[in-house]
Specification:
Chain lengths: ~270, ~500
């Protein structure tokens, strides 16, 4: 069967930035913690492929380090969502209609009811700006997303014959959830993860942009954008590069999510064959 | 007469041609911070003085843009031979904006109110030496001091020492009533404050009919507002990187003036490890001032080596005591018992000199092994935690009060410098009126704090004012926070 084109393009884009982030652990063209103010605001040259920023730091290196921050924060935030949201959704589906189901799902509705970014700003403003608090703030809003998706998908399986068979065989609802339901809804969760991941990257950028994300000297795309704002008319590349990095990463992840859904969703798969 | 009419016609034709009829009599001034209230005698915020100083409120004496002190509401004064009694002769015919007359009773009320036990004046020190204020006649008032105070006339020029009336002071926070050339009109919070020409002004009336102060805190918005000509003047323009563009644009003029703002890397002298002089010296030598001035301020600012304004005649250049020498800095750290450096916290208030300068200084300190974790704080938070609570290691702030070296004699001040010798020197200075002796004492004071490395002395803040080409009469320098519009006019 054919790989969806969006998956290939999306994966390529994602791999460029993920690769840059991984590479930054062992090598960056320049050390971004050393400032070279006399060399600031250079346009792209052979020595600095994307030029230098307002403090003379190499923009390629900044983007690589920024990719690391963005990906790490978004990944951990999605991780929080999966680790807490998926079990909650499975429990709610296993005990569908019970009081527990109501409590879990109405709790989720409660979190959903808040504008996520505003609460993330509140959390980081109260507990202090920094990467850890940004992860928690973004992660909290991933929980209800995964809980809902999990519950909805799991419910459709609970009425299926093979689950009935498992119940007759005496398996507990917990075992059924883990051994039979979870593998069947995994592809849905993977697709949802890529979407949440791209939203996470945007949220990190937004928090950093207003100064509530990772603090200097840690590089972050959002702060690069904010710092470059007033330079837009003097050195547009300083603002354009982190902006494009955000755009292409999010685009890549969304394309990848689309492609994965095409590839993994059984209904679409059936329709195509 | 015919010539005059022709000129007027030509003038109105030109006005119509530019499509801005109100332009010749109105100016929109933008500033970064909005004042929290409008009573300069009851608040410390610089933004209050920016709006009301000289425009709405006046004192016995006043500052000019070059820093000189000239007669204000007091026409002239006599000083007794022992330097203890000042007899002020007030101008006659001065009225407050509400129509009540300004006389000696108002002066007595203002000074007594400022120095009272329960006074909320932010600069009570200005009035500390006053023992008595006596009304001789409606236009004469006598002020008696406890000790000769060389800086008394200078003190009376501050925005905190303006003359207010007992009838109107109660509502001054929202409806300031003074004697100035402009009358307060309205204040739409978060947006603007309007003032209009005072027709009954005692002195030279203002040229402009009205002025609107707008508050634009975001540097990008500030740039856009000026470029779109939404505002005519931006006092204290917050993005120095754009200044060359305005300089190159014939629509604008750029005034880069001195301020009294000593920008310092303050160190918490009261806590480990900055209670150790060697550590403070190490920090001072780890800082590359020029890199900070270039990187954070795009070259605007004069390096300083002590807490004193370089344009003051008594300034001595002590930058050599703390030249950039990371190698020496590492040695000093090792000597102080920190061969591997240490961790500390650097709190940063919102102004760009602090946020941008902080990032550069943190990088410079990392070079010698000091790891300063940056914590951005809003002003209220900074005032509470850093300034009031002394809970910090390093911080960056600009001290914009004029002649404020006396703060080093106050051990309770936020950097907690406690040196009895310095305190004694300041006490002597306050009682000295002879200019040569004062100058000598001030130089000694500068040297003591520089040699003690109390703080890292970075640069004297420069203030860029950007205005539409042709506007005249704006202050170049900022001897005190003020946007004095009384002499400003369109060409």
């Amino acid at each position: 069967m054919r790989m969806p084109r969006s998956l290939i393009l999306g994966s390529l884009l994602t791999m460029v930035f993920a690769g840059g982030a991984l590479l930054s652990f062992i090598w960056t063209p320049y050390d971004i913690e050393t400032l070279a103010i006399p060399q600031r605001l250079q346009t792209p040259t052979g020595a600095h492929w994307l030029g230098t920023d307002q403090l003379g730091r190499d923009i390629v290196s900044m983007i690589m380090m920024g990719a690391r921050t963005s990906i790490a924060v978004a990944l951990l935030a999605v991780g929080i969502g999966i680790c807490l949201g998926v079990p909650l959704g499975l429990v709610a589906a296993a005990r569908r209609g019970s009081m527990l189901d109501e409590v879990i799902m109405r709790g989720n509705d409660l979190i959903f009811a808040f504008p996520s970014l505003v609460i993330a700003i509140l959390i980081t403003a109260v507990f202090g700006a920094g990467a850890t608090n940004a992860i928690i703030a973004i992660g909290i809003f991933n929980i209800p997303v995964f809980a809902r998706v999990t519950r909805g998908a799991a419910l459709s399986f609970w009425s299926r014959d093979f689950i009935l068979a498992a119940r007759v065989a005496g398996k507990s609802p917990a075992r059924i959830s883990v051994e039979h339901i979870l593998p069947n809804i995994a592809n849905l969760l993977i697709v949802q993860s890529t979407i949440q991941f791209s939203l996470g990257i945007l949220a990190v950028a937004a928090l950093s942009y207003i100064g509530l994300g990772a603090q200097p000297p840690t590089a972050s795309w959002g702060r690069m954008l904010a710092d470059a704002q007033t330079l837009a008319s003097i050195a547009p590349h300083v603002a354009l590069v982190p902006g494009l990095a955000i755009v292409f990463t999010v685009l890549g992840l969304n394309l990848m999510g689309d492609g994965l859904r095409d590839l993994l969703d059984p209904r679409i798969r059936v329709a195509r064959t | 007469m015919k010539l005059l009419t022709t000129m007027m016609l030509a003038g109105s034709a030109a006005m119509l041609a530019t499509g801005a009829l109100a332009q010749n009599t109105h100016i929109d001034v933008a500033m970064q911070l909005e004042p929290p209230n409008l009573d300069p005698t009851g608040g410390a915020a610089q933004a209050i003085d920016s709006v009301v100083y000289s425009n709405i409120f006046e004192g016995l004496t006043r500052f000019m843009s070059d820093g000189s002190v000239v007669p204000g509401l007091a026409e002239r004064w006599d000083i007794s031979d022992d330097g203890l009694v000042y007899t002020f002769h007030l101008r006659s015919g001065v009225t407050f904006h509400d129509g009540t007359s300004m006389d000696a009773e108002d002066v007595k009320f203002s000074l007594d109110r400022a120095r009272a036990e329960d006074s909320t004046n932010a600069q009570k020190g200005l009035f500390a030496n006053i023992t008595d204020v006596t009304v001789i006649d409606p236009l004469t008032v006598q002020v008696t001091l406890s000790v000769p105070t060389g800086s008394f006339l200078f003190n009376m020029a501050w925005g905190d020492a303006v003359i207010v009336a007992p009838e109107s002071i109660g509502t001054a926070a929202t409806n300031p009533v003074g004697t100035g050339a402009f009358v307060f009109q309205d204040w739409v919070q978060g947006d603007h404050i309007s003032i209009a020409r005072n027709p009954g002004y005692w002195g030279t009336p203002a040229v402009l009919e009205s002025v609107t102060f707008r508050f634009i805190s975001d540097p990008t918005a500030a740039y856009a507002a000026l470029m779109a000509e939404d505002v005519d003047v931006f006092a204290g323009y917050p993005a120095p990187e754009n200044v060359p563009q305005f300089e190159a644009d014939p629509r604008f003029q750029v005034l880069i003036g001195n301020t009294e703002g000593e920008t310092i890397l303050a160190m918490n002298n009261g806590a480990e490890p900055f209670n150790n002089r060697l550590v403070r010296k190490a920090v001072a030598h780890a800082i590359d001032r020029q890199a900070i001035i270039d990187g954070a301020m795009y070259g605007m600012g004069t390096p300083i080596g002590t807490h004193f304004a370089p344009h003051n005649p008594d300034y001595i250049d002590l930058t050599g005591l703390s030249n950039y020498d990371p190698e020496l800095s590492r040695q000093l750290l090792a000597e102080a018992g920190y061969p591997d450096g240490f961790d500390t916290v650097m709190t940063l208030p919102p102004p760009s000199y602090a946020r941008r300068g902080g990032e550069i200084i943190a990088a410079q300190l990392r070079e010698v092994g000091i790891n300063a974790e940056i914590q951005n704080q809003e002003w209220a938070q900074w005032l509470e935690v850093t300034f009031g609570g002394h809970d910090y290691g390093l911080t960056i702030v600009s001290h914009t009060e004029p002649m404020d070296i006396g703060i080093y004699a106050n051990p309770g001040y936020y950097f907690q410098y406690d040196n009895p010798d310095f305190q004694k020197l300041m006490a002597t200075l306050n009682q000295t009126t002879e200019p040569a002796a004062r100058s000598d004492l001030l130089k000694q004071a500068q040297t003591i704090i520089a040699e003690d490395y109390v703080n890292g002395y970075l640069f004297e803040l420069a203030i860029p004012t950007i205005a539409r080409a042709g506007i005249e009469g704006l202050w170049l320098n900022q001897p005190t926070a003020a946007i004095d519009m009384t002499a400003v006019s369109w060409p």
